[in-house]
Amino acid sequence: MKLPTHIRHDGFDHDQLTRTAGHALYRKSKGAGHCSYEVITIQRAKADYTWPGGKKTLKGTESYPSSTLWGRAGWSFQTLREAEATFATLTAAMEDCAL
After folding, report:
1. Region label for 54, one of left (φ > 0), alpha (ψ between -120 and 50) or beta (otherwise)
2. Per-residue pLDDT for 13 more than 60?
3. Residue 38 within any structural domain of the chain
4. pLDDT tens-digit series, residues 60-81
């Protein structure tokens, strides 16, 4: 299952601006006020898992990085320009690895 283009979490709206196979850029906002940006390395479940309460996550399901991975698989920015620069660097690095 692909990462949603709109996510509501902790009172914030996250709207996907762009993505590649491995990374995504989201605008994070709360109401009509200030917004910031997040660049993430898309996480994928390595195996099927059943959570307490019965909710299931299937192998390959995409997700945001956990807070423990922030700074290594997710980054926050105050400006779109900074976020786009990091997104471009990460996606270029992935392309270089594919060569």
Report:
1. left
2. yes
3. yes
4. 889 999 999 999 999 999 999 9
Residue 6 to residue 16: CA distance in whole angstroms: 6
Reported pTM: 0.86
- How far apart CA 34 and CA 22 sit, in angstroms, is 27
Domain that includes residue 22, residue range = 6-98
Cα angle: 89, vertex 95, 97; to 5 degrees: 105
Q: What is the residue-wise DSSP string for 8-24? A: EETTEEEEEEEE-SSEE
How far, rounded to the nearest angstrom, does the alpha carbon of residue 11 sit from its chain's CA centroid?
A: 17
Residue type, 49: Y
Residue 20 placed within a domain: yes
59 contacts 45 by C-beta, under 8 angstroms: yes
**Which residue is it, tokens 């992935």?**
94
Over 70: is that where the pLDDT of 96 sits?
no
